[in-house]
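Thread: quick sanity check before group meeting

JM: Hey all, I'm pulling together slides for Thursday and realized we never actually wrote out the predicted structure for the chain we discussed last week. Dropping the sequence here so it's in one place. If anyone has concerns about the input, flag it before I start.
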Amino acid sequence: MGLPTLAMDNKKSPDISSGASDRRMGKNQIQRRTPFASVNTSEQKPVDFLRILFEGCIAGGAAGVVVETSLYPIDTIKTRLQAARGGGQIILKGLYSGLAGNIAGVLPASAIFVGVYEPAKQKLLKVFPENLSAFAHLTAGALGGAASSLVRVPTEVIKQRMQTGQFTSAPNAVRTIVAKEGFRGLYAGYGSFLLRDLPFDAIQFCLYEQLRIGYKLAAKRELNDPENAIIGAFAGAITGAVTTPLDVIKTRLMVQGSANQYKGILDCVQTIVREEGPTALLKGIGPRVLWIGIGGSIFFGVLERTKILLAKRRPTIQNSESTKHD
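JM (edit): ok, ran it. Output follows.
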């Protein structure tokens, strides 16, 4: 068996390991293979599923931490722009406020997302026809976003309240929020978060995967790190721009605290439009597109590189195990 690569066959043959097997398959069957951006595996077994889950968690966690550490100041500026009501002044101090606590949440959240996304994607690619692979990517992205939201929402609430100067430390933020608002306060804006992040995750990963598939078919080779990064940046920037209004609503609901300025998503939209005009729903679009564009470049670049490094470890492990059995 050759080295695993970042491609997966949508339609698997039971055992394709020699030239003779390829000839028996016939030319048409070989041409039907479609490359996808995931780790190549043989016939799926429970151990393979667990390995994909594990490697997805490692790659996702690494990519999430690198992005968050690199681009946190841009995210802080974006949050302050969106939280400011009317002509509120934007403070450019303490741009790394809340970073440590945020990384503590981003690491498991990113790990959960990719850990769910990768195996879900591979399973769904076998269910959907090849010409509907985009639906597999959309669904897997939404599933990953829903699973990781249980960690991402409290992390986002604490981060944004620290970014807007309400708290000076993550532990203090948690204690105060729970004391004043109850445990539910850590999930403030949960509905708006899902409204923003489920379509965001689904669209961004679908765009990224489909662009990679098209590029690989055109280039007739595996993509290198700069190419993965450029595709990731493009997918992130487009998705970030489209979902900015949802992000503004999510930010307002999360930072309002116990004041309860907004009664819900619809009331938040109506209040913003009535008091500040429709353009207020696009607040922070510049920093958001910049942040997610650069973030997409770093995230997907680190993600694919980490997956390659993890995949290269497989033959060594498998060969050593085979030697022991022999």
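AS: nice. Residues 43-317 form a domain with the Mitochondrial carrier fold fold (CATH 1.50.40.10). The CA atoms of residues 97 and 163 lie 6 Å apart.
JM: adding both to the slides.
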